[in-house]
What does this fold into?
Amino acid sequence: MEKNTFDFSDALRLLKEGKKVYRTEWTENCYIYLVNGSVFEVSRPPLNDALPAGTKVIYGPHIDMLQKFPNGEICVWVWRASNLDMLTDDWMEYNG
It folds into this structure.
């Protein structure tokens, strides 16, 4: 079965549409997605260790990566594209 891959410009378009995408070289349990910005008030750790409770925080939009591990753990972190990520054409939509 042939996989339909695309370049980063298409991956970015899909992210903006709310879809998840991944590179074929990544593990099958790893993908990126767009986190929309939001505004919230500090009410719990770790932020209330650095800011007074009730402080308004503007949480800017960004791209996160999520990876699911065989032991059931899930790790999420802010993802930053490398030059290779942006120039390759091995992106696919994540449907897991």
Remarks:
- The first helix runs from residue 8 to 16.
- The CA atoms of residues 33 and 41 lie 24 Å apart.
